[in-house]
Amino acid sequence: MTLGIVLDVVITGEFDPVYGVPKAYYGEQSSWTGWVEQIPFVQNVLGAALLIFLVYIWRKGCWRIRGRIHYSLFTLSATGLLLFFHYWNMV
């Protein structure tokens, strides 16, 4: 929700002339805000796909060891970031 409001303000830039706050503050949101609210779901699906593919590459030995370690560190950092977002209710 917060991300939707921020993107709405940045893209449309409509402010209330009396109070000087964005119109999204009053609940007047754009028509595309529904699409922005799907971003957390997509993030979770991609995070799960990263973890599934991580198990797959280690079991099958798809890449060299350096590539697998690099991908493991990337997946670990992405998962940590998602957990951070969940902790602060950003997802």
Task: Provide a quick synopsis of the model.
The protein is mainly alpha-helical.
Query: Helix coverage percent of residues?
Result: 55-70%
Question: Major sheet: size, sense and barrel closure?
Answer: none
Straight-line distance between termini: 9 Å
Q: Give the total of domains.
A: 2
Percentage of β-strand residues:
under 5%
Structural class: mainly alpha
Annotation, overall tally of beta strands? 0
**Whole-number average pLDDT?**
82
CA gyration radius, whole angstroms:
19 Å
H/E series: HHHH
Tally of helical runs: 4
Unreliable spans are: none
Shape: elongated
Keywords: Membrane, Transmembrane, Transmembrane helix
Transmembrane segments: 41-58, 70-88
Structure description:
With 91 residues, this protein is an all-alpha fold. It folds into 2 domains: 1-37, no CATH class; 38-91. Helices cover 66% and strands 0% of the residues. Helix 3 (39-60) packs antiparallel against helix 4 (65-87).
Task: Lay out the secondary structure.
Layout lengths: L1 H11 L20 H4 L2 H22 L4 H23 L4
Helix pairs in contact: 3-4
Keywords: Membrane, Transmembrane, Transmembrane helix
